[in-house]
Amino acid sequence: MDETIRQHKFVLDESEMPTTWYNLVPDLPSPPPPALHPGTHEPAGPADFAPLFPMDLILQEVSQERYIDIPGAVLDVYRQWRPTPLFRAHRLEEALGTPARIYYKYEGVSPAGSHKPNTAVPQAYYNKIAGVKKLTTETGAGQWGTALAFACALFDLECEVWQVGASYDQKPYRRLMIETFGAEVHRSPSELTNAGREFLKDPKNLPGSLGIAISEAVEVAASHDDVRYALGSVLNHVLMHQTIIGEEALLQMAKAGESAGPDVIVGCTGGGSNFAGLSFPFLREKLAGKMSPIIRAVEPASCPTLTKGVYAYDFGDTAGMTPLMKMHTLGHDFIPDPIHSGGLRYHGMAPLISHVYELGFMEAMSVAQTECFAAGLLFARTEGIVPAPEPTHAIAAAIQEALRAKETGEETVILTALCGHGHFDLTAYESYMKGNMVDEDVTDARLAEALLTIPSVG
Ligand SMILES: *Cc1c(COP(=O)(O)O)cnc(C)c1O
Predict the structure, then answer these.
(1) C-beta atoms surrounding 129 within 10 Å
(2) Is the confidence at residue 340, as pLDDT, over 80?
(3) Ligand 1 pocket by C-beta < 6 Å: which residues?
């Protein structure tokens, strides 16, 4: 038994928690292309977003300020679980026999068990002070629905959630947790909306998708004055709220004696929010010439938005009701296979992540789900935390990097976000451990078919 004293966790006091969110946009050499009105294809103005979001969030969406103060009421909620710990993965490193140093920022300590409350809380707060009565939303794996239900409970808002059908059927405990926090949950596609009733006519839509659930939640918000919609990823303001992850990690890496910063940052990307949250503050340091990390997004091989999608204007939802966003997309009609990483099954990628990728500041790779679950098991058996299926993609990529370091003998410093725990995903682990899990690579023919649905924008 090695009894050397070594530090595992790098923690910050509540008084050291950052009090601003970071907006990457003004630090980029060019701004991301604007969202467009779905009908006219003209740049969408604040008025186009007003039926869906309160003005404070719309202004954050288009803000050119580098830093935005986090409201005191939001800081007070954040302090319930923030700052979150940064861990050094000593036992994982030993199991791999690597000279690399692996760090992970653990967001699973939040009330929802993921990074999602970092944006759910401010979104609920800004809606509350704007006089909104109810928020609608979609949820895939159930993490976002849980986070928004929790945030709405704190700010005394009603909350209605459309949960992707396949996940609703597979994950009763996530639904029950959302209901425990006081929200109402519907299986999507549902009979409650025009969009849902249309989708139900075609049996291929029965398992649902994030794009379909978004259409339903948006329809209800847009048709009621005192109801607004909340999105758990993709939009600029959501990514910005998540930068508290990276701002804390910067301070914690310094405490760990890694002031030069990581050599590689890897993170899983569904819509891109946890990865933007971790990596954008480090990208700021890189653009200022102070650090030089490689920044690498990791996505599922069966929903390869960055690695196989196209960069084009597309809808955020399947029915085509949202403004058009320029993003990496597989086509808004693309319904990914029901893999276990429900949170990564989205046809598009955040416009800001897509733009950063196009500028060459970010790399991307994809990983098949059995490799991810193998990584998840090794992580659980060394570090003691069962990761959600989504961050197992990041862990698989970190392991690949650590094994490369083993070959070259380099002491590569790797940083990743362990963005959620997998306590509600154990049936997915069971499927892997019983040998029932398969890797379904999406065929080029299927991708080509979905890409045809991307609208042509002059
Ligand atoms: C929602 C979710 C994701 C995917 O969303 P991003 O916006 O890409 O972060 C990944 N991991 C977990 C645990 C999630 O809840």
Answers:
(1) 12
(2) no
(3) 114, 116, 143-144, 232-233, 268-274, 343-344, 388, 390-391, 419-420
State the average pLDDT over residues 88-105: 98
Q: Please, what is the end-to-end C-alpha distance for the chain in angstroms?
A: 66
Tell how far the Cα of 5 is from the centroid of ligand 1, in angstroms. 34
CA 3 – ligand 1 centroid, Å: 37
Task: List the one residue out of 272, 273, 291 whose CA is nearest residue 283.
Answer: 291
As given in the structure block, the two tokens for residue 189 are 């596609």
244: Cβ–Cβ under 8 A, 6 or more apart, which residues?
17, 18, 21, 70, 78, 82, 118, 277
Domain boundaries, the chain: 10-16+71-113+237-442
Radius of gyration of the chain (CA): 21
The 10 Å Cβ neighbour count of residue 69 is 11
3-state secondary structure of 80: coil
**pTM assigned to the model:** 0.97
List, in sequence order, every residue forming a beta bridge with 364; answer none if it has no partner.
297
Assign domain 10-16+71-113+237-442 one CATH number from 1.10.10.10, 2.60.120.260, 2.40.110.10, 3.40.50.1100: 3.40.50.1100
Q: Are 98 and 405 in contact (CB under 8 A)?
A: yes
| 83 upstream amide cis, omega within 30 of 0 | yes
The tokens describing 185, both together, are 């949950």
Q: Taking residues 31-54, report their average pLDDT.
A: 92
